[in-house]
């Protein structure tokens, strides 16, 4: 049965707001990316693709930021997905105690990123912090680090905070996905004498693919946009070791007032996010077909 | 079809109008409950907005503003404070409209440059109150002989030290050479005291670099760097990095400098576990609050031999006051700056906040201000070199090379990496 | 046993920082430095809380945050559910394209739209107004709401709609009488999502609000950072006060929330 054309009226109020306050500014980024606007002055000139050329050939910090961002992304996607999946499987049943655990694990998600940044900066503080004191207390003093002050550890310390912050959210999505798997499949697996790992490989994981897609895509987007946390905790330092693309855009656009160049980086950034999300969807889709 | 269409629009319109009215209505009432009390604008009252980044000065400014309002019934001041990071990035955006920041504070260096370029600062050259300020320190707010901003605070960004600890280590006089400085640090270290506490996680690097580079480089070196006529791989910067590395390798900084934030570093000094705090004079009053027993003064490490020494320390004229060129209330804005430049008002501010000022005839009652006032008159100080870097990315590269060294890199490597970034940003 | 151990371990990982925040908020800065983790001999005190309420106009910031959050969530939910319904009813590539256009909003970093958006809001004279903040919030949070709700609405049984259409019901009637009631679980889930985002949003208030009368809580919290530098006791007191409403909302809506999240994610 044909849906009446009046369905398009449902788009009007939202689309107007979206177009004016989101699409227009977002498209302006494309426009400014071929200018040398500083973000403030009334006048600017067109420079063609100069900004893009500079981003790819003459900007070692941008390349470093992409690398840092990929490290961060990889750590968060792997650990957050594993943590969320493992606990979702443990807490699958809707018992009272499980609902409590899920609520507890979800709790960090409702805090603001500024709050989380304050809290974890304090935990990582090498002189006052909980972490080094805790390691000392349990006899693991040799693992003490400067954490956020250590060039090689800082990005992972931030990634760990990100996992702490958002894993609970992903856990809930996985629990929902697990509930959608019919119980009789497990019974069959049980009768056939499948090991736990086989059951997971052959039943749980394939049927969990839709939830996994959402979790991984959303985690990816969040990792790229983790600006607040990184900015509030390290501002990209020490020595650029935690500079990610989002903080670098801010640096370039709002600290050195190269808004045109910042826009060009933003456009590349959007392309990177779109590409990675697309590849993930494809990989997970094809994974699903095989089963 | 038409009537149905009208119905859709009608019902949607009704709902949204109701809710919008609800939101807008409660919005303004929310505004009233939240207002700090003085927003009722009478007939002949001009309300000006004053924006700055010094949250720690809010109490002092509130008192000054209320006195100012009693003295000038026709002007009211609304003050807004932002964290300095946000202020550096957002202030120029907010000022563009002219509705905010009739009076505003501006950082010397890259922010002043961009504000000048964007024409945001009104020319104050002809104003009578300019003569209330000391002449030399306010040069930093001038371009081509015109005064666009008036620096208000006078800061010595060089290490603050605990006099008792240094004396106990056997140094009645502060050493005037690099060998002497190292000997002093060694003596402190042997007594189990960290010679230098540097909060390199936040402000430490940007502060400490000034005293370390002041005698190693000629004047105007960072202008040359910006013009491509000098390089970070040259002797002046490599030597500076090498000396920082020397301090690190000898264990003269506290543990984990790159992970230490300013409050933690201050705590070390306040508790007598470290002798020097590598920040600046603005922390003296906070240190005294943490430990009133402390006896404090300022020193800069002299990085050359005594006969090559040209400067004793670093000064910065900071917190520059400016009037928004786009403002429609420039006269009221200027009246406020005029008020701030009165000696009694400035003295109140100086003593309340523990700052030296660029205003003439200020009376310092605060003990640590008095004790260090000799730096204003008797010592040869260099204007903070870091503020001569007008490109924010270049500044970041310079500071990062120090972080790199503190992280264990060799000075030559760190300098070369940073120089590469500098060159990328100068094209 | 291993399971229990893992649960306890992760539970501690969440509870300990929380306890630390609460504990620190009841100490002085000096006590924190002397012993960051212990309880001072002189006992804990609530003076930080009193200071914050007396010195800061907390009540006003609270009111602003509540107004902005409630209105933003309401409108974003209303518009997004209408659009999600539209997308779920339009078949073929048109629906797909519309879905893509609206989802695009999720991947664009906020730093990209900051300057153009600021100029726009300025021209429309919507700075220093809660209304301006609400409009922008609605526009930028709609994409995520549309993303979640579309997934859910696609799972609603089409046969029901077909039947009502034969009975002569228009789209509006189907939407209000059938889709909205059936979507309540996923809408409450989306609502919490939006609550969290709007309540904690810092960037837009930072850009658009300078007048103290219109500041929201996160912006006030940032002021603390300026005012108290790294005075953790004060900062943590601010963290607790500004998080409290979200914690309450969460406790009350938790049931719907979990149910809704599940409903949305099942079919993905």
From TrEMBL, chain A:
Membrane topology: Multi-pass membrane protein
Transmembrane segments: 7-27, 72-91, 103-123, 153-182, 203-221, 259-281
Keywords, in A-Z order: Cell membrane, Membrane, Transmembrane, Transmembrane helix, Transport
A cellular component annotation (GO) from this entry: plasma membrane
Pfam families: BPD_transp_1
Family annotation (InterPro entries): ABC_transporter_permease, MetI-like, MetI-like_sf
GO biological process: transmembrane transport
Key word Heme present: no
ABC transmembrane type-1 domain ranges (all copies): 66-280
Entry keyword annotation includes Cell inner membrane: no
Protein location: Cell membrane
Protein family: Belongs to the binding-protein-dependent transport system permease family.
Identification of the protein by name: Carbohydrate ABC transporter membrane protein 1 (CUT1 family)
Gene source species: Aureibacillus halotolerans
Source organism phylogeny: Bacteria, Bacillati, Bacillota, Bacilli, Bacillales
From TrEMBL, chain B:
One Pfam entry name: SBP_bac_1
Statement: the UniProt record of this protein carries the keyword Membrane: yes
Keyword Lipid biosynthesis recorded: no
Gene3D superfamilies tied to this protein: Periplasmic binding protein-like II
Alphabetic keyword roster: Cell membrane, Lipoprotein, Membrane, Palmitate, Signal
Superkingdom of source: Bacteria
PROSITE patterns per UniProt: PROKAR_LIPOPROTEIN (PS51257)
Range of residues in the leader sequence: 1-23
Name recorded for this polypeptide: Carbohydrate ABC transporter substrate-binding protein (CUT1 family)
UniProtKB/TrEMBL annotation, chain C:
Topology of the protein relative to the lipid bilayer: Multi-pass membrane protein
Entry similarity comment: Belongs to the binding-protein-dependent transport system permease family.
Keywords of the record: Cell membrane, Membrane, Transmembrane, Transmembrane helix, Transport
Compartmental location: Cell membrane
Keyword Cell membrane applies: yes
Residue ranges crossing the lipid bilayer per the database entry: 7-26, 61-85, 97-118, 130-153, 174-197, 232-253
Gene3D superfamilies xref list: MetI-like (1.10.3720.10)
Domain ABC transmembrane type-1: 62-253
Protein's organism: Aureibacillus halotolerans
One GO term (biological process): transmembrane transport
Entry-linked Pfam families: BPD_transp_1 (PF00528)
Listed GO CC annotations: plasma membrane
The protein's name: Carbohydrate ABC transporter membrane protein 2 (CUT1 family)
Chief site of localization: membrane
Phylogenetic classification of the source organism: Bacteria, Bacillati, Bacillota, Bacilli, Bacillales
PANTHER family in UniProt: ABC TRANSPORTER PERMEASE PROTEIN MG189-RELATED, ABC TRANSPORTER PERMEASE PROTEIN MG189-RELATED-RELATED
